[in-house]
Amino acid sequence: MNKITGAVAQLYSLFEKAVSYLQSPLLLFVRLYWGWQFFQAGLGKLKDIGKVVDFFTTLNIPFPAFNAHMVASLECVGGILLFLGLGSRIIALPLTVNMLVAYITADREALLSFFSDPDKFSAAAPYTFFFASLLILIFGPGRISLDSVIAYLRKKRVNPPIVAQGRV
Q1: What is the total count of domains within the chain?
Q2: What is the pLDDT of residue 98?
Q3: Alpha-carbon distance 27 to 30, whole Å?
Q4: Which of 77, 79, 107, 166 is the most exposed place for a label (fewest CB within 10 A)?
Q5: Would residue 124 count as lying in a domain?
Q6: 159 has pLDDT over 90
Q7: Distance (Å, rounded) from C-alpha 116 to C-alpha 85?
């Protein structure tokens, strides 16, 4: 019985290791796809800001013009940063909050149906944006990102390789 348990544990460990290699490509895909979607959404809002201001006014959002410009700029710039994997976790926080506010103000019924009607919650417009930004906030951008390159270069600079010194 111990041999079987050991074999299963070893097999599971190999499986876990193999699947873990998919983490960075998945995070890259999420960042590229949803970063681009955030950018496009923000750019669309900036191009037709009057319509966004009017929509925010109907939702009784305070300072609708200011908030419309702020949301559009956040989505546009935040989308680019997510796409590049630069400052990913930092920008994912305001993007996540932005999508939560979108749920609260524009899709409150869907938000309140989180437990009673999960399909309604996941069908709401902010859902995929919210989920993608939350995913990057929690798991980070992955190894295939500018954040990862910067961390590698900083580590290399702080801990330079020790070079053997020859005697003359």
Answers
A1: 1
A2: 97
A3: 5
A4: 166
A5: yes
A6: no
A7: 36
| Residue 168 pLDDT | 53
In a domain, 135, yes or no: yes
pLDDT reported for residue 135:
97
Phi and psi at residue 160, to the nearest 5°: -65, 150
List for the chain the helix, strand, coil content (%; round to 5).
Answer: 80, 0, 20
Residue with tokens 């949301």: 71
Tokens representing residue 91 in the block: 């920008």
- Per the structure, the complete domain to which residue 117 belongs is given by 23-156
Read off the pLDDT of each residue in 122-150 and give the average, rounded to a whole number: 96
Residue 18 included in any domain: no
End-to-end CA distance of the chain: 63
Neighbours of 41 (CB within 10 A): 18
156 band by pLDDT with thresholds 50, 70 and 90: confident
SS3 2: helix
Q: Is the distance from CB of 23 to CB of 136 less than 8 angstroms? A: no
Distance CA 148, CA 156 (A): 12
pLDDT band, very low/low/confident/very high, at 3 (cuts 50, 70, 90): confident
In a domain, 114, yes or no: yes
Summary mean pLDDT of the chain: 93
Q: Which residues of 89-100 are buried (b: 16+ CB within 10 A; e: fewer)?
A: eebbebbbebbe
Q: Which two tokens stand for residue 22?
A: 């998919």
